[in-house]
Specification:
- The structure holds three protein chains of three kinds.
- Chain B is of the alpha+beta class.
- Chain B is built from five helices and four strands.
- Chain B has one domain.
- Chain B has a four-stranded antiparallel β-sheet with strand order 1-2-3-4.
- In chain B, a hairpin with a 6-residue loop joins strand 2 and strand 3.
- The model of chain B has no long low-confidence stretch (mean pLDDT 90).
- By secondary structure, chain C is an alpha/beta fold.
- The chains are: A mainly alpha, B alpha+beta, C alpha/beta.
- Chains in contact: A-B, A-C, B-C.
- At the A-B interface, helix 2 of A face helix 2 of B.
C-alpha cells in the first residue's frame, strides 16, 4: 500500500530535507566533476531533472506491470538499469531530432546521466517506500530539482572560490567536499519542517 | 572521478597530430584538468596566479614585437620569431598567431621559450601543458625566471 | 538446483533486453534517419538533394562544393562560415566564439558544426563554385632557403586550375609518424596564373607544425598530393596607378604570382614596388629572378630590406625592417593599392604605417588566413 503522504509534501521534502545530494549523497561523481562552471552545471541539472521524471514514471510502470506480476523482484536492479539506459538513449535521439536547441544544451550530458546513481537511487527509493504513481512522479521531479539546486549552489561557490588564493592541496575535489559538507549541515536545519523516511 | 563531457573534445585536441604535431601533453598521463589543478596549486603556494604569469609573458613578448623581433629590457634578451598562419586553441576559444618568444636572462644565461598560444593557454585556462611536451613550462621555474616568485 | 528458476531468470532477462533493443532499434529507424534533404543555394541558383545526418561542410564537399576551412572540421579555425537562412537550428556552443553579433544577424554559421537534418537554405559566395579538387603529382621539390621549400605539382592530365594570382589552395597531408589523421592547410600559389596545369607553393617549416613537417620530412618527389582550390579574395584589383607589395618569408609566394600577372596582362601603366623583408642574408631567395624582372620591366622595382646586415654580407640595399623602407619611400595612399603577405606581426606593423599614410581598408589587401 502506498504511504499516506501528500504528494506535495514528498515533492518539497525531496528538494529540501531529503535532497539527493545533501542528505543521501547520491550522484556524487557528476556532481563533483561538472560543477566547475555555473552554466555547465545548469545544463546538467536540467538534464538530470528531465531524465529523473521520465525514468521514475517508466520504472514505476515497469515495476507494477512487469516485475511484480512476473515475480521478478530479484531481477529488479538489472531491469531498472537497462530501462534507464534505453530511455536515455532514445531521449537523446528524440532531442536531436525534435528539439535541437535543447539537444545543443543538454545532449552532451545525457550519456553521463545513464550511470548517475541518483537516477537508480530515486527508482529504488520509490519501490522501497511503495509510492503510488503520482507520489513517484513528484518524488522524481523533486529529487531532480533538488539535485539541480545542489549542483548550482556548488558551482556558484566554486566559481567564486576560483579567484581566491587557497592553501595548497585544498583546491579541486577536496574543496568541493568541504563546501558540500557545509551545505549539507545547513540543510539539516530544514529537517523540522517535514520529513519523509 | 568522471570526466566532464565538455572536456572530451579538448582532451582529444591536445593529442599529437590534431592541432600541433607533437600535441600538448608530452608523456604526461594525467588528464588535463589534473595538470591544470596541480600547476595552479604549485603557483598558489608561491602566491601567484597563472594570469599574473601570463601577463608578464605577454609584456615581454610585446616588447619583442615592438622591437621588430628583438629587444633588451629588464635584464632580458628577448627574441620573437613569427610564422604565417594561426593555430587554434584546443579549448576552442581563440586563434593565436604562430609566434615564438625566446627570453634569455642576461645575468644567469638561463633562457625560456614560449608561443603566443602558450600565453593564451596559461592566461585563460591555467594550462602549462603536459610534462615532456616541448612547450611545457614548469610553473615554479617560470615564475622564478620572470622574477615573480 | 531448481532448473526452472534459472530458465525463468534467463528467459525474463532475455525478453526484457530483447524488448528494449527492439524499442531502441525502432527509435533509431524513426528518429536518426533524416532521409533526403533539399539544399537550396543562393536562392535557387543551385538545388541539391543530399542524405541528411552529416555536417554541412562534409555534405557540401561530397557535392564538390568546397568551403574554405583550415582545421578540418574541429571548430578551431572558424573559417568555414556560411550563411544558413533556414534549417540550421540554434547556434551551438562550439560556434559561439567565432560568430560575432553582426554575423549572427546575417545567419552566419560554421558549416563544420551544423548538421544537415532537414531542408536548408544557404548563401554561398559564387566564387566557391569554382573550387575543385586535384590529385597532383609532385614533380619538383627544391630548398629555397634553409627552412623554405618550393613545391611544384603537376595537375592530372586534362585538368586545369583557373585561379586569380594571389589566391591560395588547400594542401592535404597523409598520416605520418604520430599524425594519425589527414590534415590540410592553406598555402598561396606562387606560380603564374597563366600556367594552368601546374601549381607551385612555397612552404616554410613551422616548429611543431603538422603540415609543414610533413612537407619537409615525409614528402618525396613523385608522391601524389591532394589539393583543393582556388580560394581567397587576395587578388589584383588594379584600380590605381601603383601597387605597393610587401612580403616577408614565404609571404613572397602570392606576390610573385601577382607580379607576373600584372606583367602578363600587359598593364605597363601600373607601377609596382615590391618590399621584401628578411632578417639575415640566408632568408633571402628568388633575388636574381626579381632583379631580372626589375631590369626587364621599368614599371617594377624591387626593394629587398635586410634587418640585420653583417659586415661580411656587403649589403648595399635597404637596411632595417620593411617598415623603415615603407615609412621612407612611400609618400601617401593616393592612387595606390597595397598587397601584403607575411607574419601577423609584420602585417600589423605595415598596416599601421600604411593607414597613417592615408591607405584605407579598401586599398589594403591581405589574406585572412595569415
Amino acid at each position: 500500500m502506498a504511504p499516506n503522504i501528500s504528494p506535495l509534501i514528498i515533492f518539497l521534502a525531496s528538494i529540501i530535507t531529503s535532497n539527493m545530494i545533501l542528505s543521501n549523497f547520491l550522484g556524487m561523481c557528476s556532481y563533483l566533476s561538472v560543477s566547475g562552471e555555473y552554466r555547465t552545471a545548469t545544463g546538467l541539472g536540467m538534464a538530470v531533472t528531465l531524465v529523473l521524471v521520465l525514468t521514475t514514471a517508466i520504472n514505476w510502470l515497469v515495476y507494477q506491470y512487469v516485475i511484480l506480476p512476473l515475480e521478478l523482484v530479484y531481477l529488479q536492479y538489472i531491469i531498472f538499469i537497462m530501462v534507464i539506459a534505453a530511455l536515455v538513449q532514445i531521449l537523446e535521439m528524440g532531442m536531436d531530432r525534435f528539439t535541437p536547441d535543447l539537444h545543443a544544451k543538454l545532449g552532451i550530458f545525457l550519456p553521463l546521466i545513464t550511470v548517475n546513481c541518483a537516477i537508480l537511487g530515486v527508482t529504488l527509493f520509490m519501490v522501497i517506500r511503495s509510492y503510488n504513481f503520482v507520489q513517484s512522479l513528484l518524488f522524481g521531479l523533486g529529487s531532480g530539482l533538488g539535485w539541480w539546486l545542489a549542483i548550482n549552489m556548488l558551482a556558484a561557490i566554486r566559481e567564486k572560490m576560483a579567484k581566491v588564493k587557497l592553501p595548497p592541496g585544498i583546491r579541486g575535489p577536496a574543496l568541493s567536499f568541504i563546501i558540500t559538507g557545509i551545505m549539507a549541515m545547513a540543510f539539516v536545519g530544514f529537517s523540522g519542517i517535514f520529513t519523509i523516511q | 572521478m568522471k570526466q566532464n563531457p565538455r572536456d572530451i573534445p579538448v582532451q582529444e585536441s591536445l593529442r599529437a597530430g590534431i592541432l600541433a604535431r607533437d600535441g600538448f601533453l608530452g608523456e604526461d598521463g594525467r588528464p588535463f584538468p589534473q595538470i591544470i589543478q596541480d600547476d595552479t596549486e604549485t603557483l598558489a603556494a608561491l602566491h601567484i596566479t597563472p594570469a599574473e604569469v601570463a601577463q608578464e609573458m605577454r609584456r615581454l613578448t610585446g616588447m619583442g614585437i615592438a622591437g621588430n623581433g628583438t629587444a633588451q629590457a629588464d635584464g632580458f634578451q628577448i627574441t620573437v620569431e613569427e610564422y604565417m598562419g594561426r593555430i587554434g586553441c584546443p579549448f576552442r576559444d581563440h586563434r593565436a598567431a604562430k609566434r615564438n618568444t625566446t627570453v634569455t636572462d642576461l645575468a644567469s644565461g638561463r633562457s625560456m621559450a614560449w608561443s603566443d598560444l602558450s600565453i593564451h593557454l596559461i592566461a585563460e585556462h591555467g594550462f602549462f601543458q603536459g610534462k615532456g611536451s616541448a612547450y611545457r613550462l614548469e610553473p615554479a621555474e617560470l615564475a622564478d625566471f620572470l622574477k615573480l616568485a | 538446483m531448481d532448473f526452472g528458476a534459472i530458465l525463468k531468470t534467463v528467459i525474463s532477462l532475455a525478453a526484457v533486453s530483447g524488448a528494449l533493443s527492439l524499442v531502441i532499434s525502432l527509435a533509431e529507424k524513426l528518429l536518426n534517419n533524416y532521409g533526403t534533404c533539399e539544399l537550396d543555394i543562393n536562392a535557387g541558383r543551385k538545388k541539391l538533394s543530399v542524405k541528411g545526418g552529416s555536417s554541412l561542410l562534409s555534405t557540401l564537399a561530397g557535392e564538390k562544393i568546397f568551403i574554405p576551412s583550415a582545421c578540418g572540421g574541429k571548430a578551431t579555425c572558424g573559417l568555414c562560415k556560411v550563411a544558413v537562412t533556414e534549417g540550421a537550428g540554434p547556434l551551438l556552443l562550439t560556434e559561439e566564439p567565432y560568430i560575432s553579433q553582426e554575423e549572427r544577424d546575417r545567419h552566419i554559421r560554421l558549416s563544420c558544426q551544423v548538421k544537415v537534418k532537414r531542408d536548408m537554405k544557404l548563401l554561398i559566395p559564387e566564387d566557391l563554385f569554382n573550387i575543385r579538387e586535384f590529385l597532383c603529382e609532385l614533380v619538383e621539390m627544391e630548398d629555397m632557403t634553409y627552412d623554405i621549400k618550393r613545391l611544384r605539382m603537376k595537375l592530372p592530365p586534362g585538368q586545369t586550375i583557373d585561379f586569380k594570382a594571389g589566391q591560395f589552395v588547400q594542401f592535404y597531408t597523409k598520416p605520418y609518424g604520430k599524425v594519425k589523421e589527414e590534415v590540410f592547410r592553406a598555402y598561396s600559389i606562387s606560380s603564374k596564373a597563366s600556367e594552368k596545369d601546374h601549381v607551385e607553393l612555397l612552404i616554410r617549416l613551422v616548429p611543431n607544425g603538422i603540415c609543414t613537417t610533413y612537407v619537409h620530412t615525409a614528402l618525396k618527389v613523385g608522391d601524389t598530393v591532394r589539393l583543393s582550390g582556388p580560394y581567397g579574395d587576395f587578388y589584383l584589383r588594379g584600380n590605381c596607378e601603383e601597387l605597393i607589395m610587401i612580403a616577408g618569408g614565404s609571404g613572397l609566394a602570392p606576390i610573385r604570382s601577382l607580379v607576373y600577372d600584372v606583367i602578363e596582362k600587359g598593364r605597363d601603366d601600373l607601377k609596382m614596388r615590391f618590399f621584401f623583408g628578411a632578417n639575415t642574408m640566408r632568408d633571402f631567395y628568388y633575388m636574381e629572378e626579381f632583379a631580372r624582372i626589375e631590369k626587364e620591366h621599368p614599371n617594377f622595382s624591387f626593394i629587398p630590406c635586410l634587418a640585420f646586415p653583417k659586415p661580411e654580407d656587403n649589403w648595399k640595399g635597404a637596411e632595417g625592417f620593411v617598415t623603415v623602407a615603407l615609412q621612407e619611400q612611400v609618400q601617401n595612399g593616393e592612387n595606390r593599392e597595397a598587397y601584403l603577405c607575411g607574419s601577423p606581426g609584420m602585417l600589423d606593423a605595415c598596416i599601421r604605417i600604411l593607414k597613417e599614410k592615408g591607405f584605407t581598408d579598401r586599398t589594403i589587401f591581405f589574406d585572412k588566413f595569415t
